[in-house]
Amino acid sequence: MVKMIFAMCAEGIGPCNIAKALQEKKILKPTFYRFQKEGKYGTHTDPENPYKWNERTIADILDNEIYLGHTINCRTRIASFKDKRTIKVPKEEQLRFENTHEAIIDQETWDIVRKVREGRIRKTRMGEINKYSGLIYCADCGRKHYLYRGRTIKRESYSFICGNYHKHVGEEKCTPHSIREVVLDEIVLEEINRALYYARNNTKEFTDYISKKTSSQYRKDLNAKTAELSKAEKRIVELKSLFKHLYEDNVLGRISDEQYRMLSLDYNDEQKELEQSIPDLQKEIDTLKSECTNVQKFLDVVKKYVCVQELTPEVLRTFISKIVVHEREKKHSQTSPQQVDIYFRYIGTFALPGEINQAEKKHDERRTA
Q: Within 10 A of 118 (CB to CB), how many other CB atoms are there?
């Protein structure tokens, strides 16, 4: 049952829909299973609904490292001897013991599920889940891409556009950086299979090439993200100071109420965007630090595949850490070449030795038009 839950999540299915699926399959929920085995009623045991899973239960299972073979103690505590309410203990204060028992879930599946969960995959208004959720970023502003679609739009015309541009249409906050989903499917599938083929058939050359290339790329990416984070944090401090001076100028009559309102709204919007971007930047930095070049891990993944025929959320998150889309050479042109950077897990960008770097490749939408 636990393996099924993790497998479904790895495919891009969220806790709510996993709960519904388990209910349809008539799989007993944990509290009722325990009741049948031990005859003990839990706080939430409901004999009339033995198959009614709760999405919170699914989420807790997906976040529980006990299935990795680890033991985590002191996860909760009682508020006080008078107040018996249970309080969650911060993760850094919990006691963690690794490899204390046999694992049910392997590390690779666990990592994929973490990627899926971090991507916050949710159903669209049309009731579907997009496999690229949380993976595509704008090359210029760094914001995640938004899937533009509709019931009257043909599937082959579904496109991803910069989330910043989508939110501030007409304000020139960014440009579309638009790319059709079918084009991206072709690009990503081709790059995954190229990397697979070369890693399997030229393992030594692949290992030497990646080790040499990605060490410098890793430092470059880490320095860039760290500088971006520092800039955002510095700007937030500046905005707080600007707010203070703006308020004082309004009180002293140096600027009108209307000017104060307009300026404060602009500053407030900028501050909100920066505060929203900081956690994402910190996550990217943490990911870079934890997923520093590890060719062997990538080769271990490669052993499980000969050729990828279809892109699924599981396949994407097994191989891809992020996709960066650049603006076209001619903005809004459907035929103008466009740069797309594919970042693989553990090895970063990949290009065959002797080729131009993947980050410099251009893709033309006409080939799938």
A: 13
Report helix, strand or coil for 118: helix
pTM for this one? 0.59
- pLDDT tens figures, 166-222: 887 767 778 889 999 999 999 999 999 999 999 988 888 888 877 776 666 667 777
CA distance 121 to 31: 27
Take residue 64 and report the two structure tokens written for it.
């529980």
CB atoms within 10 A of CB 91: 9
Amino acid letter for position 47:
P
Could you write out the three-class secondary structure of 178-235? CEEHHHHHHHHHHHHHHHHHHHHHCHHHHHHHHHHHHHHHHHHHHHHHHHHHHHHHHH
Residue 28, SS3 per DSSP: coil
Query: Reading across the β-sheet that carries 159-162, which strands appear in turn?
Result: 145-148, 159-162, 179-180
Instruction: Count other C-beta atoms under 10 Å from residue 154's C-beta.
Output: 8
CA angle (120 as vertex; 117, 122 as ends), nearest 5: 120
Query: Which helix (H) or strand (E) segment is 180 a member of?
Result: strand 179-180
Helix segments in 90-180, DSSP class H: 107-118, 163-167
Which tokens sit at 110? 């666990």
Dig out the tokens for 10 from the structure.
């790895």
